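General statements about sequence and structure are easier to judge against a single worked case. For one protein, we set the task of working out the structure tokens from the amino acid sequence alone. The sequence in question and its structure tokens are set out directly beneath this paragraph.
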Amino acid sequence: MYRRGDRGWLEVICGPMFSGKSEELMRRMVRVRIGRIPVQIFKPGVDDRYSTTELVSHSSLKVEAMAVADSDQLLHEVEDKTE
């Protein structure tokens, strides 16, 4: 979640259903937006249970997200300014 030079990294938030994974991601996004850090959120295009343009938690928290079909599309959609 914090910049480490010019290298990227992958951070996994894992757990069983209803364990708060989406809420944890949204909590982190609130923090980076307060800090005006440019980030993007992606979601699988097949996940259209609640919204096609938002990541939605079971407790109805929402954050804007881009639906992507696969990892190639995700890499294409990442903006240069994204941390």
Q: What stands out?
A: The chain is about 25% helix and 15% strand.
